[in-house]
Amino acid sequence: MTTVMDKQQVLLSVLKKYDSLAVAFSGGADSSFLLAAAHQALEENVMAVTAVSPIHSRREKQAAISFVKRLGVRHILIKTDEMNMPEFIANTKDRCYVCKKLMFREIAKAADAANISHIAHGANLDDLNDFRPGFKAAKEMGVFAPLIDAGLSKADIRRLSQEMKLPSWNRPAMACLATRIPYNTPISSEKLHIIEDAEEYLLSLGISTCRVRHHGDIARIEVSPAEFDVIIRNRGQVIENLKKIGFLHIALDLAGYMQGSMNL
């Protein structure tokens, strides 16, 4: 029977096949674990590359910078320009493909400039069960998925991250801010800022994970049912603050937080 520790050894073996590696690094639990494992396997021959744009929150950027600094790995920040791409702004179901194609293209440039031979991203086995157009972009750009190759699930990654004492082990699932906007509804910088400000406010209340889905004038709040009481206790304050941010109507989704709910 294959154990989680066996899978970790498989991962290290997979990573050692690369002479050098650039990790597409968001700062989330998956890419953090991949980066730490790659650093263990390849030492100075690994580099983290983080995309910076309005679709990524400031909180995520700072978390990524702090983690890499703690790990002691080379870190490159690249600016991506999705908001000037009509095919991205249109927000069709291929939005993620368009975004990831651009991001991997820019990472490839950074890797080439640093004499790095290969690129990897932090996709895991569980991601195969969701709608992920970005996987197509990764394959087209020759980007590897070592966590999938090693048979690692999200639960495996969190357990191994905890054993490695990585601060990212229990970090909530992350996704770009554009995922809060329904497909075929155009994306704008204003909407992204409103979403980020609303979620930052809710997180300041002590909520662990939240999504503010942008339905025009309506904010549809998704949090874990276990944290509904936080919203209810602060109901008046939540309404007041989200209206100041730019919404007219505030709704709590009784189904609770669900990763990838817009894909339904």
Care to describe what's here?
It is a single chain. By secondary structure, the protein is an alpha/beta fold. The mean pLDDT is 95. It is built from eleven helices and seven strands. α1 (4-15) packs across α2, α5 runs parallel beside α6 and α9 (189-204) packs antiparallel against α11 (235-245). The strands form two sheets. A four-stranded parallel beta sheet has the order 3-2-1-4, sandwiched between helices. β1 (21-24), α2 (29-42) and β2 (46-52) form a beta-alpha-beta unit. It folds into two domains: 4-163, HUPs (Rossmann fold, 3-Layer(aba) Sandwich), CATH 3.40.50; 177-263, GMP Synthetase, Chain A, domain 3 (2-Layer Sandwich).
CATH 2nd-level architecture of the largest domain: 3-Layer(aba) Sandwich
Supply the CATH superfamily name of the largest domain.
Answer: HUPs
Q: What is the CATH T-level topology of the largest domain?
A: Rossmann fold
Output the helix-strand order.
HEHEHEHHEHHHHEEHHE
Radius of gyration: 19 Å
Biggest β-sheet strands, sense, barrel: 4 strands, parallel
Which CATH first-tier class of the largest domain would you pick?
A: Alpha Beta
State the low-pLDDT regions, or none.
none
Termini separation comes to 35 Å
Number of domains: 2
Principal-axes shape call: globular
Classification by helices and strands: alpha/beta
Tell me the helix content: 40-55%
Overall pLDDT level: 95
Strand content: 5-15%
The number of helices is 11
Arrangement of strands in the largest sheet: 3-2-1-4
